[in-house]
Amino acid sequence: MAAGGVAVLVVIILLLVRFFSSDPTRPSTASNANPATTVKAGEAAITVYALDNVFVTLRQRDDNLLLFSGSLTRGESRSVPWRTTVRVDADPFEAVDLEINGIRHKMPKRTADVEKVSANAPASGR
């Protein structure tokens, strides 16, 4: 009977260790599974960098397509395709940098629109 109790205890301990240990093959809680929101090679993108723990939502403004919504931890980043104007919401916004055309910018306020200008459009002088 004692051997059976020890075996049960060992199984419980192994299950607890497995449950509470992190598995590097698990996807992040902030995942992008939708192919429409995945950046293709050579495609323009906006990258959000978490300077601290932050909750971020990125949507295409014209059709309200959700590109990403989730928590990012310090040091994490997320890239989304930049096909049209993208609305970025971040809380706290001070914990976010945006990379646009290879240049990092501070998030100016809690909600910001990043406008996509066509390569064929004339310069607006702004």
Question: What this model shows, in words?
Answer:
Strands 4-1-6-7 form a four-stranded antiparallel beta sheet, with no helix packed on it. Strands 3-2-5-8 form a four-stranded antiparallel beta sheet, with no helix packed on it. It is built from one helix and eight strands, in the order αββββββββ. The longest helix is centred in the N-terminal third of the chain and has 19 residues, at 2-20. The protein has one helix at residues 2-20; strands at residues 45-50, 54-60, 66-72, 77-81, 86-91, 96-100, 103-106, 111-114. It starts with a helix and ends in a 12-residue tail after the last strand. It is of the alpha+beta class. It has a domain at 35-114: Immunoglobulin-like (Sandwich), CATH 2.60.40.
State Rg. 21 Å
CATH architecture of the domain at 35-114: Sandwich
Secondary-structure content class: alpha+beta
Fold-level CATH name of the domain at 35-114 = Immunoglobulin-like
Which spans have pLDDT < 50 for at least 5 consecutive residues? 22-33, 120-126
Percentage of β-strand residues: 25-35%
CATH class of the domain at 35-114: Mainly Beta
Order of helices and strands: HEEEEEEEE
Mean pLDDT comes to: 77
Tell me how many strands there are: 8
- Helix content range of the residues, please? 10-25%
